Amino acid sequence: MSSLVEAVRAGRTAEAVGLLDGLTDAERRVFLPELKELRKELRKAPWEMPARRAYPALHAAGAACETGAAAAATWIAATDMRWSQSSPALLIHILGDRDTVWLADVTHRLAGRPASAGVPYELMAGLVRLSGCPVPTTDAYVRGWVEHIGNLRQLGNTLLDRLRKDPHLAELVHAVFETEDIGSPLEWTSAEGPNSWVDALAQLTTEGVLDRKRTVDACAARLLRGGTTLDNRVFLRGLKALALTREEERERIADWLALASDAVPTVASHAQSVLGSLALDGELTPRRLAEMSDAVLFRPEKKLVRAQLVLLGKVLARDASAADEVLPALAQAFGHEDADVQERALKLVERYLKKVRSPEVRAELAVAADQLIPTLRARAVETLGAAPVAAASTVYEEMLPPAPEPARLAPTPESAVELAEELGVLLAAEGDVATFERALDGLVRHVYRDRDALLEALGPVVARRWWSSMDPEDVRRPDNRFSRTHHSFGSPAFALDLLLATVHDKVPTVTLHEGAQRGHRGGECRHSALSRAFDARIWEVAYRLRAEPLPFLLSTPSWSTGLLEPGELVDRLDAYRRLGARVSEADFAQGLLRVRRVDRAAAAAAAERAEALGTAEGTRLARWLTSESPTLPLSRRRASEGRVELEFGELLDLQEDFPAEFRALGRPVTSSGQRYCYHWSQDVERHWLAILPERRELVAARLVRDVSAVAVDDTRGAAAVLPSLAESGGVAGQATHLCVAYGLGARHPEDRLAAVDALLVLAARGQLDAARLGADLGELVRSGAVKPSRLAESVRTGAATGANATIWGILRHTLTALLADLDGDAKPAHARALGDLLTVAAECAEQSGARGELPHLAQTAARGGSSRLVTQARRLRSTLVEGLAA
């Protein structure tokens, strides 16, 4: 071993660099093979101090010995040395004697790497100074420059001062406008003053240090290109800070029009205000104003649309001669989803219709009126000469999205290599129930067939798992992580880790035996019963993999929902009998809970076959299949802390002849008890549904409080389980509907969308109780658990799929409860937002042809004023009672 490698291995960086000083390129290259061998050795070493301390010296020595520009850049930016590099100053010293052309090549190669490579800006900037090359304007260099020069820990001057002194200011500032997702470091400094990027660039532009036209053009172009919310906010602030003159605003009318049409709402609002100012000063032609209106009135943001209508009203008030060009564009709002917008647009058209000179324009306005809601359309017949509303010639037909069909599980992977690939995918990203169950059964089968072949196939999959590097001493440690799980799994991925680690002898047998025998040891919570059943099966499988491998699992479902066909379970028990295999208790219990029993004919036929097996398990299965169909326990609603929760009584059929860890499924569900638990992973909830695929209410009752948090506490993600809940089997009762009700009032759009999906699935399957869901929503809105505005967004989304009658059927019960509160002296908290729900209800009633009385609606419609609540109540009453205006 050379003295250089000895110094590097010991981490003596200064000594290693000193040994290389003064050597020629050829002499330095001689050391490369040894350095590369050391690097390979260190890659395999554990993450510990003796290995780590060699990296800075290795990094510096390799950079000095690599004489090709490409090889040197690759060594310097190597991933394996990223966290233990030598300092930029040392690297600059080492490379300082190289040719400037070579240095420039290395500089641009380093700058061309992605920012995630972590090449220090100080190194790149130092190489630019040494080589005298043009400054790179790559993503990595620009980001590094922004973060470096904006660092407020540099004392003695401000960001503005540092920018003034930068020799490459113009090139780098221009590159900032071209860099994606740069908003965060630009906003990191103080919001205002000389340490603010926005204010500093504006000041430098005012001083003439930066070319004004180029800066304004770059800022406008960046906003036109779009980007992240933060980027848009920063560059919009920058554009405003430049304080454009009226001449500069006029020069960019095309840009403002494009931004008003397509930019994010905040940017579009600014563009709208600039164009509005130009229009009111007579500097925007009616044609351009009409072009702008065509774009803005088509946008979904109500604030922008209403602001545009206000602008058009002001322009027409100043110059009514523009009516011929402006009113056709204004009529775009006739098709807006908001009835208030439609009415405002109609009022403007009616007010200035007499100023229209062209018969073609009048005809165009009359045709556009076909888009108005029925009550406004009836008015347009008289004022605009629109065609009368024709009587409905066809019966309304509900258009519900088709309900998803359960999928048959594909056969278990035949080869160990194919199984290993599926397990790798599952460990990288949580899969669905079907994928997990296939992989679980495949693991059991291949351990039984050929454990050595499976171990070979699993090698690449488990190489990077946290437990793979444990030595025998680590395995035996009492604080081994598998021994500290309290026999409860936070996620399906961790369950797979236990099974794979068991196959690789990384879990003590005593831990597996204890897990299989003692079961759940964690605290009690609402999910404990479901968690116990899931965990008991996993621990039992793990123990049998070690002690007595199973030929296959009895409980692998037939369908993606977790349902198991009774004939298949009989076939599996028969195969066990012929093989002389011992049935696992938890595996068989899970099979019983999954077997289809609602098809009484199929269940009876399978029961006869099971009885004929002559085994204890066959007799137990026959008795289970011929017992009464699954029933729901007695339930009670309970209000607590603004929430509505459910309590279920016990079910004896789930406590008789079942293992201890499964009996809790039949015990009462209460709203009291532990509020915090370790079941934080939402991925496992789909697997809980597959435990009881014909009794979803028992799962839903244990999830109600979790789902309620998306509405009451504004949490995110707990409603993701709702579509799976809707696709599950069994009665959709109080718990299922209450979960959907909470989801419809969720704070976050993705949770509301999941609830809408669940609602539509239940409706398509004929399992939606509209009266129950509507009453639940009314109760939750009155208690403050669900905000009417969020509920309105959800039901509007549902109606947009074509489910108008379904949504009306729900809202009529919700509104009955909420409108009743308006009859009293006290004004309820939800009164202000009730107009949104009435709007959706009116739209659905109009589309579906609903008729009849709605309690308390007449009193609301009879109120004075023109608030949204009153106008929409009148609209709904007109539709329900009076029908279309004669």
How large is the count of helical segments? 48
Q: Residue-averaged pLDDT, rounded?
A: 88
Distance linking N and C termini: 102 Å
Structural class: mainly alpha
Short overview:
With 886 residues, the chain is mainly alpha-helical.
Keywords:
886 residues, mainly alpha, two-stranded antiparallel ribbon, flat
Would you kindly provide a written description of the structure presented here, covering whatever features stand out?
With 886 residues, this protein is mainly alpha-helical. The protein is 61% helix and 1% strand. The chain has 48 helices and two strands. It has a two-stranded antiparallel ribbon with strand order 1-2. Helix 16 packs antiparallel against helix 17 (229-241). The protein is flat and about 95 Å long.
Question: Which helices and strands, and how do they pair?
Answer:
Layout: H1 3-9, H2 13-20, H3 25-29, H4 32-44, H5 49-52, H6 55-65, H7 69-76, H8 88-95, H9 100-111, H10 121-131, H11 139-149, H12 159-165, H13 169-176, H14 183-188, H15 197-207, H16 212-225, H17 229-241, H18 246-251, H19 253-262, H20 265-280, H21 286-296, H22 302-318, H23 323-330, H24 339-352, H25 359-368, H26 374-383, H27 416-428, H28 433-462, H29 472-476, H30 492-503, H31 509-518, H32 528-547, H33 566-579, H34 585-594, H35 600-612, H36 616-625, E1 635-640, E2 643-648, H37 660-663, H38 685-691, H39 696-712, H40 722-727, H41 734-744, H42 749-764, H43 770-783, H44 788-800, H45 804-821, H46 834-848, H47 857-861, H48 868-882
